[in-house]
Design a protein that fits this description.
single chain; about 25% helix; globular
């Protein structure tokens, strides 16, 4: 077993996955305290601004930053870095398969979250490999697949701001409408965030409710059901950082000063956001 991660820290995994991506890998302390237990997996897909190489900067954002700020996520977290262009589902699957092979993970509890370009990546990846994913969230993105019906076979939650100028809400609505037209929306949730811009949904990555919702689903659920009890809306998002540390708890990702990308940073991402 290629145990590269240290308890509660990020490990950079580079050059290991053929036709894959380099990625940060986080292993919670509990993974080492309970070696016989299989742990869930969360795959986090970043936006266009963070594309590049070297794994040097994007670990300061969203799910990885939430962990650094003290958000307790008892799962293996895979955070691939996209060198540029759209996310490739096959390459993401190769990364997932490498982690499954090398770590003690629960393959019935694999989850995907993505924002902006990562929202597209989440929909594209899950749409092609729905049989591998227990639940997923896509924020302010869309889908490039000609057939999106795979997204209707698992609990899937779509968020989009009505004032998003980078990736318009029409991109998410197109997916929702396609699933509704086929009567394939029984496991679908969607939240239109009134007045919210492109960067606003970033707060969702810091919420305890986000990971509670994901972890409440499993591929072994029979029948598959979607949790509609947990609420995430603008009011809940306004309290996203309550109880989180200002300095962070993880050495490699503790230097960021702002809990979310600034509006300026979001605008830079907007310039490169993938739109259909």
């Amino acid at each position: 077993m290629a145990v590269m991660a240290q308890p509660g820290k990020m490990a950079a995994v580079t050059g290991k996955v053929s036709n894959g991506y380099d990625f940060w890998l986080y292993a919670p302390q509990a993974y080492f305290d309970q070696p016989s237990e299989k742990f869930p997996v969360v795959i986090y897909l970043h936006g266009a601004k963070l594309c590049g190489r070297g794994l040097r900067s994007f670990h300061k954002y969203l799910t990885l930053d939430a962990i650094a700020k003290g958000r307790d996520i008892e799962a293996m977290v895979i955070a691939p870095q996209n060198p540029g262009g759209g996310w490739k589902p096959e390459r993401l699957n190769n990364v997932l398969e490498w982690v499954v092979k090398n770590y003690n993970v629960d393959t019935t509890r694999v989850y995907v979250v993505g924002m902006s370009l990562g929202g597209y990546g989440a929909m594209d990846f899950v749409g092609i490999y729905p049989h591998k994913i227990a639940a997923a969230m896509a924020l302010c993105g869309g889908c490039t697949l000609s057939d999106v019906q795979g997204l209707g076979t698992l609990p899937f939650w779509i968020f989009h701001g009505t004032a998003d100028r980078a990736v318009t809400i029409a991109q998410s609505k197109k997916v929702v409408n396609a699933l509704k037209e086929k009567g394939n929306d029984k496991l679908l949730r969607f939240e239109w965030l009134t007045g919210a811009n492109h960067g606003a949904p970033a707060r969702i990555f810091y919420l305890e409710q986000t990971y509670q919702w994901l972890f409440s689903h499993s591929l072994s659920d029979n029948p598959r059901q979607v949790n509609r009890d947990i609420v995430i809306n603008l009011d809940v998002m306004s309290r996203a950082y309550k109880g989180l540390n200002s300095k962070g708890t993880i050495t490699k990702v503790s230097s960021i000063k702002n809990p979310t990308p600034t509006e300026e940073e979001q605008n830079e991402e907007e310039d490169n956001a993938q739109e259909e």
